[in-house]
Amino acid sequence: MAQVLRVENLTKIYPNGKKANDGINLAVGEKEIVGVIGPNGAGKTTMLRQILGLLKPTDGKITLLGKDITKDPLAVKGEVGYEPQYPLYYPSLTIEEEIGFALRFKGYKGEGYKKKLDAIIELLNLGDVRKYFGYQLSPGLVKLSLLAVALAQGGQFLILDEPTSMVDIVTKMHIWEIFSELSEEQSILIASHDMNEVKRLCDRIYILVDGRIIAQGSPEEISNMLKLPCTMRLTVSNIDCTENLLEERQVKYSLQNGVFNLSVDNLSSAMELIGDINSSFCITYIEMEAPSFDEAVMRLIGDNHG
To answer: CA-to-CA distance for 183 and 157, rounded, in angstroms?
Structure first.
């Protein structure tokens, strides 16, 4: 797979001596969605700002669309769309005016401008609020307007910093569908705290802790990096009898608001337990992850943080 982005030994040390990025190596291929996750202060946004040419690296090399942007930060400026983490907005501009500025910078005019503007607004379901001014927008709508600007900037590569933070769950699911469709033509780099987001969308994931990449791989590969138990959430028709069964078998569990949270050593044991509970007490709801991606990420971060 051809690489759209290649980051080699990227290091950023601020004047106060803080090392925000420490020898980062990362790549994004054509038509690939790559995620970067990590705790607050891990260096995700610092890394993105260097990739965008907004911040000069202390050391290392960044090759984007075949150009060394550590030497020429503006070399591919017109080929990258960017959604920042923070909800920036222009109080006196409407949503369509904000998107329109980005389109005009890309050279859109006349009927082509109108069609592209309408297409982006329709794609993000912003039709009812397209005339709203920045000061009228909720934080969620501000994030959507920033995503719209990133799409207007267009190009071969999208860099998205916390793209669905502050938006409601229905809108978030819609945005995830959009990203999946965009990846058929574009490459996307996402920095996120939302593990469901990166697990669902990303072909590969990098875990960043204290400025260093501590693990990388597909969601499945990361899930299997550690020997972790299977986790389950379920509800049953008879809570008391289910508790007795779990205690007899010495299964680790918690019960909250009628929902059992179980932890079992391996998948085969989990399947056997599910069968026994269902045949005796009728499982009315169940979700299971084996092994748990979220638990693997949290364990990897915890083992390498600080």
So the answer is: 10
Count of domains observed in the chain = 2
pLDDT number for residue 306:
61
Predicted pLDDT of residue 277: 92
- Taking the C-alpha atoms of residue 196 and residue 216, their distance in angstroms, rounded to an integer, is 16
Question: Are 2 and 66 a contacting pair, CB within 8 Å?
Answer: no
Residue among 270, 200, 265 nearest 234 (CA): 270
**Mean pLDDT value across the chain:** 91
User: Is residue 302 in some structural domain?
Assistant: no
Residue 259 lies in a domain: yes
> First and final CA of the chain: distance in angstroms?
35
306 versus 129: which is more confidently predicted? 129
CATH of the domain at 240: 3.30.70
Residues 84, 176, single domain; the answer is yes
Q: Is residue 269 over pLDDT 90?
A: no
CATH of residue 13's domain is 3.40.50.300
